[in-house]
Amino acid sequence: MRITQGTFSYLPELSDEEIAKQVAYALDQGWPCSIEFTDDPHPRNSYWEMWGLPMFDLTDPAGVLMEIKECRKAYPGRYVRLNAYDARYGRQTTALSFIVQRPAEEPGFRLDREEAGDRRIRYRTHPYALDRPEGERYARGE
Amino acid sequence: MSERLGFGMRSAENGSQAEPSGDSRAGGAPGEPPPDEPLPAGARVDLEKERAESQADEVLDALDAELVGLAPVKTRIREIAALLLVDRVRARYGIDSGRPNLHMCFTGSPGTGKTTVAVRLAELLHRLGYVRKGHLVSVTRDDLVGQYVGHTAPKTKEVLKRAMGGVLFIDEAYYLYRAENERDYGQEAIEILLQVMENQRDDLVVVLAGYKDRMDSFFSSNPGMSSRIAHHIDFPDYQTGELEAIGHLMMEREGYRLAPETAPVFRDYLERRRGRPRFANARSVRNAIERARLRHASRLLARGGEVDRDDLTTLLPDDFLASRVFTAVRP
């Protein structure tokens, strides 16, 4: 199952040139970019690991693209995303975030039902990938 | 290549602007032809027009007008501008000649205008579409080399990322390599620098600057660096006449002028200052003018009374004659 989260998630994968154009737009707006990666695809997992520090004071997308390529090389089988942060007063939030790499195979999620008191049913989504320990979840790619 | 050109580079913009007035429109293509379509072999391109469109001449003329002397430097920069312009026209015919290597090394005494020329160069390369942004990132050893193991690589990379799309100017580059200390982290910075200079030539231009003799020993211990730099440009020391012209330009910019009787004193001052140790060319001229301004201001205050515009702008011989240069015995 293809995971959709962040901007452009329903579009086909962006090529490197298209990513560079998006980064150029973000830099033109004055948003510093940062790169994060994870192998826990749960939608509520908002704490991805940082690939280096956020990149401040850039004017050209080439530097961001260089880091994306290095992160892909180091973690070929994980999700990698790019965040652009708008630090303006009154916004101060992630302005743009999209996935720039995903594992070759994404097994998806299953729905767990749990019977609670008074015959209530609680649902939770469980990524199949989480059945394996961290670092081996998409081991085929790494 | 075509992808790159589409990516906000000037040649693409100019190409599409120039096309409608050119002959290629008569070829029957309705509307705008794509900018990456090569011109037919028989087509003719007006070099003069290309030149005017690139607006490179403005930068070159400013270089000529605002920088005194430096003839070899100006010649080389004009040659580079011509090459880039011709390459752009060649690209429109579909001749792929690869990007020229434009990493440079500026050597010369202090105050000969290395930094100033680098700023102009960034602007020029941007106008000719060689770099995408045309900003100058000026760094020294401290910005590149870390203080402990594992600190250097991220630091150097951060600087390189900041410089991408523009020009990275490394002042006093010979400090990067310290021969006396084998475990110095400078070597690591040099390796990363070399790697990026080689692999990402499209993304940035590296300019090293420093004093001639020390840069020579730097290159002899880093042969890889020397061979990756295509242009070694030497900045000559200024003659007294040139220093005088520089001084006049500086004063004009700051709203001062020399009284007619001050001009020979100023020339004499420069003549004497040149012979003294730690002479730093244009920078020494700037400092001399700064000190003359101080003396001029205190002279006016000491005199009291009313002043007019002429008093406020004119430097008298005394403002220079009070300098230590005149009292000290010439070595």
From TrEMBL, chain A:
Gene3D superfamilies: Ribulose bisphosphate carboxylase, small subunit (3.30.190.10). Keywords: Calvin cycle, Carbon dioxide fixation. Pfam families: RuBisCO_small. Residues 4-103 form the Ribulose bisphosphate carboxylase small subunit domain. The keyword Transport does not apply. Belongs to the RuBisCO small chain family. RuBisCO catalyzes two reactions: the carboxylation of D-ribulose 1,5-bisphosphate, the primary event in carbon dioxide fixation, as well as the oxidative fragmentation of the pentose substrate. Both reactions occur simultaneously and in competition at the same active site. Although the small subunit is not catalytic it is essential for maximal activity. The basic functional RuBisCO is composed of a large chain homodimer in a 'head-to-tail' conformation. In form I RuBisCO this homodimer is arranged in a barrel-like tetramer with the small subunits forming a tetrameric 'cap' on each end of the 'barrel'. HAMAP family: RuBisCO_S_bact. Heterohexadecamer of 8 large and 8 small subunits. This is Ribulose bisphosphate carboxylase small subunit. The gene is cbbS.
Automatic annotation (TrEMBL), chain B:
InterPro entries: AAA+_ATPase, AAA_lid_6, ATPase_AAA_core, CbxX/CfqX_mono, CbxX/CfxQ, CbxX/CfxQ_RuBisCO_ESX, P-loop_NTPase. Keywords: ATP-binding, Nucleotide-binding. Residues 100-239 form the AAA+ ATPase domain. Belongs to the CbxX/CfxQ family. The gene is cbbX. Pfam families: AAA, AAA_lid_6. It comes from the Bacteria. Transmembrane segments: none annotated. Gene3D superfamilies: 1.10.8.60, P-loop containing nucleotide triphosphate hydrolases (3.40.50.300). This is CbbX protein. Residues 1-53 are annotated as: Disordered.
